[in-house]
Amino acid sequence: MVTHCGWNSIIEAVSAGKPMITWPLSAEQFYNEKLVTDVLRIGVAVGVREWSFDVWQLGKELVKREQLEKAVEFLMGGGGGGEEAADMRKRVRNLAEDAKKAVETGGSSQTNLMALINELKYLKNLKDT
C-alpha cells in the first residue's frame, strides 16, 4: 500500500494488515513516516526528504520511478527484501490483530471511551452542584 503517511491512512493500512510504501508530502507526515519505517518497521520509504509547497505542481518529480519500483520489489520479497519483508508483513499482521482486539467489546478503545464519558459526566456533576 502506498501512503502519504496521513494518520488515517496509516490506521487503515495497519487495520488491514498491509505493509506500507511511504511517500509523505507535508506537515506531520514525515514524523508519521519515521514511526512506520523506523519504529514499527512496517513500511519502506521511497526517499522523499523535504516538505514541498509545490507537491501538486504538474511535472514536478518528487520520487523517481526506480525508487518506487525498488520499494515495491522489496515488499514483495524480491530486491533484497526476502526475510526482512516477511518479518515486516508479520509485524503488521500482528498489529492488525491488536487493532481488532482494541475495538472489540471490552477492548482498550471501548474501555478508554467509557472512561472519558464517565469523566465528563463526573465533571458535569461537579459543575451542576
TrEMBL record:
The keyword DNA-binding does not apply. InterPro entries: UDP_glucos_trans (IPR002213). The keyword Transferase applies. Pfam families: UDPGT. Keywords: Glycosyltransferase, Transferase. One of its GO terms (molecular function) is UDP-glucosyltransferase activity. It comes from the Eukaryota. Belongs to the UDP-glycosyltransferase family. PANTHER family: GLYCOSYLTRANSFERASE (PTHR48047), SCOPOLETIN GLUCOSYLTRANSFERASE-LIKE (PTHR48047:SF45). This is Uncharacterized protein. It comes from Ficus carica.
